[in-house]
Amino acid sequence: MEKLLISACLLGVSCRYDGKSKPMENIEKLMEKYELIPVCAEIFGGLPTPRVPAEICGEKVITSDGRDVTGEYEKGAAEVLRLGKLFGAKKALLKERSPSCGSGIIHNGKFDGGLVPGFGKTAKLLIAEGFEVFGESQTDKLI
Known about the structure:
Helices cover 26% and strands 27% of the residues. It is of the alpha/beta class. The protein has one domain (2-141). Helix 1 links the parallel strand 1 (2-7) and strand 2 (34-39).
């Protein structure tokens, strides 16, 4: 069975910055086709849950209170990549707009709800390593 990295928050795990999850529909359909490998780069990078919101500002990831957490995000991305390679995954389904998992569109770094084209640290690394990365609104492409 094909392996699929998936943001743990999409499976209902309360690991988002606000301590909540964003469970998606169609998990059962995904499970029929893939072995799901839950990941959370923020937790793998050593950040707590809940945590201060963070957004990408240039090449750095900065919290809303001004702390640079780029290192934690990069460490978490590297761990997700390591697990993907270990399990032989080639695809990932990640939480959209996240500074870690966002693919194509992320928050603008101003903490005002605005969005800009871009990729989170984990999505960017996985794509550079040859993974196909999908956001949760693209689930139909996987089923």
